Amino acid sequence: MCGIFGIASTRLEDGDYTAYTNTLSHRGPDAYGDYQNDNVFLGHRRLSIIDLEGGVQPFFNESKSLAIIFNGEIYNYKEIRQSLIQKGYQFVSNSDTETILVAYGEWGENCVQYFEGMFAFAIWDDVSKRLFIARDRLGIKPLLYAEFNGKLVFASEIKAIIADPKFPREIDERAVVAFFNYSYIPAPYTIFTKIRKLLPGHHMTWQDGRLTIQKYWDLNFSPDENRNEDDYVEELLSLFGDSVKDHLVSDVPVGAFLSGGVDSSAVVALMSQHSQEPVNTFCMGFGGDMGGYLDERGFAEEVASRFNTRHEAFEVVPDLDGIIDCIVDAFDEPFADDSSIPTHFICKLAAEKLKVTLSGLGGDELFSGYERYLGFHLQSYYSRLPRFLRKSIIAPLMEKVPERADGHYTVNHLKRFTRGGTLSPDQTYLSYISQLGVRNRPVLLLEPERLAPYHEEIIDLYSGYFKSDNVEGPASSLNRALYCDIKTYLPDDILTLTDRISMQHSLEVRVPFLDHRLVEFSARIPPAIKLKKLNKKYILKKAFKNTLPDSIINHRKQGFVGPTSKWLKSDLKPFVLECLSEKNLLKHNYINPGSVQTLLDEHFTGKQINDKVIWSLVMFQKWFERYID
């Protein structure tokens, strides 16, 4: 895992580009390297994982006509390397970096089709004066870019781009709207107008000052109804077993995050089959005034005991002195997934022991693990009730029900369910994933009429994925919700969070559920055996029912989040009130202070759970003060 930074221009001006690259030193503390000529600068910070001595970057071919900088891992590089040797190529290292470069020399842009792994890389061809940049299929590794002052700048993180004092820090208001709806900013947008995210499964080419972007991979949901459950279980176990084995390729020890849920437990179970030494596992619990909040440490310890892992647990307490600043610095733009807090601590703990860990991320999106998938499935039955009953009686009555005092989301989810009861399928699902929903959207942001077109633009982005021709089946198909999440929430929230927080601690996190072959297989599984009756992740649980304890298979999903709703009412209340004071909110004039006060009052009194919106407000405020104010 590494950090990459580069500039391409028809005439590269002088500059201290080393300093820009070194803003990414946390991503690669082991080594620094760069290359520069009249047209390009390539900078690299290395975290040594494979070929510790021979993988120094930038890496060049024999004639020095090609140079590469690379962030990620190619798990099948040995197989590709062997096929290229058979074609007559010679290698001077044992690194996956050299394998990418030689593959590009043989297959050109099509080389990405051969790679299994996570990657973002840039290759400079000094003969054709051409720069080729690619990002992996699922967006596990980041790639951001900007065109300004007659040049293309790209990097693993925003901070390297905005290190240029000439960079215009102009806020993209459509990104502001998106952030307060979803708590993250979806690609291709970033908070800065001039910076964009290269979409997953895309590559881009710069030559003679012109930039072209092309998609090379997408996911197609085409369920095969002719196979029985046992056939799916057999192939799932085979593909997932191969993926976990591949993800263990490393020249340094590999550990795992273990939450006690099905996904991470399945990863640890398969790791134990392929590891000669006990697996190092890490989990988190929560302290402070939690109320009745579920803590999964007991489940994690049960799995650790069954598979004889070296297990360590850590308790997160609501003392966030300095932690929020660390999180803001990790993302460089507003980001408000509150699981960033436990992720910060577990990555810090793991990084003290190892350089590489495996995670169970991606299992929910592949096999229908979130509550919202169940809600969306049940909407097809709820919609059969008379419309007047849903709109005029059930929904208003539900709004009067107070939220649970312990911070659980049961009542909140029921309110969202009834609010979406009269909407089209795509709008229903968007109402589930939006933090604002219909109720708060018009009043939270100042100048709502001026920002209304941005609301529509962001809604169209999500609806476009939901309605995509890549998904077979009716508008109410669960697969449409899964595809929408795989294109948005997965890369731009879950994977972004994991990459930025882990790399802030110089830790590489691998995600075996997101091997693209396993992802493509999951898209062929009928929705009815992903979510069977009320049983989420049915087929995955069936696959591991003889491997994992019954308590792991059957217990209610918690998710890797903290008790933020409860903390905001208690331990963090003074901090929140100060952060979101009218004086602070008026620094940028994006937020209506009166609406914020209403949200706080509703949350503190238990009328509504508004923790997601409140946390988004806090993170936006801290970002603005750090980067703009």
How many helices does DSSP assign? 27
Rg for CA atoms: 24 Å
Principal-axes geometry comes out as globular
- The amount of helix comes to 40-55%
Beta fraction: 15-25%
CATH fold description of the domain at 2-215:
Glutamine Phosphoribosylpyrophosphate, subunit 1, domain 1
| Uncertain stretches of 5 or more adjacent residues | none
CATH uppermost class of the domain at 2-215: Alpha Beta
| First and last CA, distance | 33 Å
Average predicted local confidence, pLDDT: 90
| Order of strands, widest sheet | 2-3-1-9-8-10
Major sheet characteristics: 6 strands, antiparallel
Structural class by sheet pairing and helices: alpha+beta
Q: What is the second-level CATH architecture of the domain at 2-215?
A: 4-Layer Sandwich
Number of strands: 17
The CATH H-level homologous superfamily of the domain at 2-215: Aminohydrolase, N-terminal nucleophile (Ntn) domain
Explained architecture:
The mean pLDDT is 90. The chain has a six-stranded antiparallel sheet. Strands 4-5-6-7-11-12 form a six-stranded antiparallel sheet, covered by helices on one side. Strands 15-14-13-16-17 form a five-stranded parallel sheet, sandwiched between helices. The protein is of the alpha+beta class and 629 residues long. A hairpin with a 5-residue loop joins strand 4 and strand 5. It is built from 27 helices and 17 strands.
